Amino acid sequence: MDIDRDTGYFVTRTARAFMRVADAQLRPLGLGVAHVPVLLCLAEEGALTQTELARRTHVEQPTAAALLQRMSRAGLVERSPDPRDHRATRITPSARAEQLLPRALELLGHSNGEATAGLSAAEIETLHELLGRVLGNLTNMIDGSTQAGSDA
What we know:
two-stranded antiparallel ribbon, Arc Repressor Mutant, subunit A, mainly alpha, single chain, globular
């Protein structure tokens, strides 16, 4: 087997390279790659619970809890009681996070542009479509194994 021709290995290497570049760009802002999906979600949807954020950012509940705790300590999110459910808390971006997010997105957009240099707009669209299909297949595999495990 030629590992360099293995799709999973190649996509993983690419994703890790993207992560390293993004982390290096975001670090001076006091942000990390994992912060961006949470902040984007909150900016687009408003206050959410931890459970809602975990679902929308496609991470497990314990991962979301740890990430939100770090983000709270870093002054990126704020927590307040949920008026509909006093057992839950609503999470909102801090004023600092709202100020940093546009610059973070600008930096990430620039690095995406550099990463796809030499590709036409049509090629980038094709890349997105193909990766979306692969992601859909993987999601179906995960969902299928979760459902199969719960049937036992």
